[in-house]
Design goal:
There is one protein chain. The protein is about 35% helix and about 15% strand. It is an alpha/beta fold. Strands 1-3-2-4-5-8-9 form a 7-stranded mixed sheet, with helices on both faces. Strands 6-7 form a two-stranded antiparallel sheet. Strand 2, helix 1 and strand 3 form a beta-alpha-beta unit. Helix 2 crosses helix 3. The longest helix has 14 residues. The model has no long low-confidence stretch (mean pLDDT about 95).
């Protein structure tokens, strides 16, 4: 698997960033430049079936973790800091329990190791309702999607994946058929028979319900050196809703001695 990526910064500790479901590396470009300015080199990675990485089944966490391991080998990266948001956070956790001892710290953004019910069904219905080979404008796609997803900012995020093909017409950056068939796997639980004892920071949004107080016991059973930081006035997209506080919280953790 040859994952698409973008490198920001030329020196300092290495930070790998993985986006969430329906996302791609461009979602992290602005914030990554701020982090790189503080002395880090970042690799923003498109996970399979997203962005400009190959469209190839399946979409499950053992496979995504293996992709990450291959990527680190290909780039000759050792002992990085790994950061993932939502689905990307699950990939990072799955990687951590599968390849222990190969990373310095973990940062998991608004997702826990527990299983989550499927909650993107309506969005997938809307995306599949868009006749991608027939639409003539982004507005046309938005009009159809609005019948399934009323929140404009969510639709705008999803439609960032819509692009004009060289031969004409539109295409999706993500692999919609695989996302549709494998979405149940994106909510699966991360399990481990051994503790992962590196420092781990979980960042959650105050208005999000992805990491609840009662989830802390399950988190600590796998990651005993984990802590949870809550960012006020933010939902699931913590880094987009409160970027300044997010970066401050992240850098404080990254700069702590191990």
């Amino acid at each position: 698997m040859q994952l698409n990526y973008k490198k920001i910064g030329e020196s300092g500790k290495t930070l790998i960033i993985l986006h969430g479901v329906f996302g791609f590396l461009d979602n992290w470009l602005t914030i990554s430049k701020t982090i790189a300015d503080q002395g880090y080199q970042l690799y923003l990675v498109d996970q399979r079936n997203h962005g400009r990485s190959p469209h190839e089944a399946p979409l499950d966490f053992p496979t995504l973790a293996e992709d990450l391991q291959e990527f680190l080998q290909q780039q000759n990266i050792s002992n990085p800091i790994l950061l993932g948001h939502s689905m990307g956070g699950k990939t990072v956790m799955e990687y951590a329990v599968t390849y222990p001892g190969t990373f310095e710290k973990l940062v998991i953004v608004d997702i826990g190791p527990k299983a989550y019910p499927i909650h993107h069904s309506k969005i997938l219905q809307g995306l599949n309702a868009i006749p991608i080979d027939k639409i003539e404008s982004r507005n046309e796609a938005d009009e159809i999607l609005s019948q399934y997803e009323p929140i404009l900012s969510v639709r705008q995020f999803l439609l960032k994946n819509l692009y004009r093909k060289d031969e004409g017409g539109f295409g999706w950056r993500f692999n919609l058929p695989v996302l549709t068939s494998d979405m149940s796997k994106v909510g699966s639980e991360v399990k481990s028979s051994e503790e992962i004892k590196v420092p781990v920071l979980f960042i959650r949004g105050e208005k999000s319900n992805y990491i609840l107080d009662e989830d802390l016991e399950g988190i600590l059973s796998i990651f005993p050196n984990a802590r949870v930081e809550t960012i006020q006035n933010a939902g699931h997209w913590v880094q987009a809703e409160q970027p300044k506080i997010f970066v401050e919280t992240l850098l404080k953790f990254l700069e702590e001695p191990i």
